[in-house]
Amino acid sequence: MRRNGFRDLLGKIEQQKRRKEQTAQAQIAKLKAEVRARDSEIYDLQNATVIMDTERIWFLERQVEELKDELSRNSVKEGVTQYYSWAKSPSDASKDDLMDTARDEDHFGHSTMLQLQASTPARARSSFMTPPATSPRLPASLCSRAASPTPSSRDTPLHYPDSDKQLLEEEIASLHFEVHRLTATLDSYHALGARIGDALSNGPLEKNRAFSTLEAVENQVHLLLQTMSERAAAASHLTSAISELGFPGEDASEMVSSLAAGFRAVRIELEYLTPGEVSLPPTSRGAQVLDLLLMRLRELAKKSKEDDESINEYHEIEQSLRKQLDSRVSVMDELNEKIAGVYRMLDEKDNRVRELEVGNGRLKSAIDGYVQDITELEKLVACMEKEHRESTNTHTSRQKSSENLIAAKDTIIAELEAKIEETVVQTAELLKEMSATEVSLTRQSAAMSRQHRTALALRDARVSELRADIDRVKNSLQVAQETIHALRIENSGMKSQMEEEREKVRHAMDSMKEELQRVLRLSQSFLGDTNSDPNSEYGGNEPDRSGGCLKNLRRRGSRGLRRRYDSGPELLNEDDVDI
């Protein structure tokens, strides 16, 4: 049972590490896709804010209103009858569901499940990678839905909305949902970390804290800590008991047999854990088996530590990408607010211009009426003067009355002229006001354009700094890879050079041995010649002595001048040969 439990524990640890790596990679890919989508949206907004055409703005507003109306109508239709896409299998649909919170207690503990729920979405557990939120091929919504026909209208054809507009709306909704979900997950993770830290430090808990849905998780963490402490105490007690009492058994033979059986079982388990040939024989001692077991366990611990470090690096990359995404979202919100303010100011200015145009039209119509009245009065005055001239010749009695009438008409004309002058002054003032308003409008538009340029420049500088940081990290990684590659090449070169040096030394030693053997043979031949002819030096004739010396010299000279093939570091000279 213990062996099976140990094997299951190792399998669970490996599966857990693999799943952590897969979820981290999936989250990194998703965050990179969201960052690229945010960059494209910021670029589009930057290009759109430069153009300030009222007709274009009105056209876009009408399109937005139409799309909203159509979306509301479609949402009402879909709210009545909906069905999921039957092209997906039930297992895939259950995997893609965002509300999948089932936990596998056979493979993960409480703390591990808590980390997975706080750091990674539930969708990352699917067997295949989901597309990013800005994918043009498949909308990244909660699930692919379409309006299903009711049972009463099963044979009627379906009318789908425009695919491009629906795709854009679904992408925007999915982006907002992902951002809200990430922020909620981070807040819950920070709150849970604070509560667990307070519990571990045995600090005073808050008396009046709100009810939280994570109390069950906290209780499980407390129980886990308590069980760990109890197990540690039990393990220490067990080690002391084994050291004092020894191995189980009534006598020494049973203890030795039980110990040997245990070591054989450990050796078999090692073969199961590490496939391949084990260097220890079946009759090896217990200490050797324990050493081998400890070595394998150390290797597994080292490997698990490296995996944990890589997972931590992935989490750091994920945090940095989330920070970049938050900064870009804040910049987009600020730009949207500024654009809305600009639109409101443009609407107010357009309304003011319309009011001024209406007033100007009214003023022009009043001036035209005054001019017509003046022309009519001039005609009337001319007629009256003609009648006066005729009446002066014929009717002298009516002269005074006509003079009074002319005086009254003169007063009326003076009043009309004063009114005309006042209207002219008013028109001049209105023209001045119109010119002043036009100048103020141009100045305000220039100031707004300058503000937008400065804001865009600051945002571009921030984006360039972030990209420069990313490039520096990539360059450092590339330099590290190049140095590792260079060190590997240098190591292989050093190995080949050492082999060559060993070959050279071996050849030199062989050549020196051959030279020494040749010198020994020469010395032995020389000593043999001297011993074979003892009378050549002490007795005999002079011609024989000189002839023997010449023969020995000739033999020695021929041996000394004989060509030698040597592959050593240097050749022996003639003095060494004579010796």
Automatic annotation (TrEMBL):
Sorted keywords for this record are: Coiled coil
Sequence ranges of Polar residues compositional bias: 526-535
Q: Which domain of life is it from?
A: Eukaryota
Basic residues bias: start-end ranges: 552-562
Q: Which residues form a coiled coil?
A: 332-433, 463-522
Q: Where is this region: Disordered?
A: 125-161, 526-579
**Record-given protein name:** Uncharacterized protein
Q: Which organism is it from?
A: Trichoderma harzianum
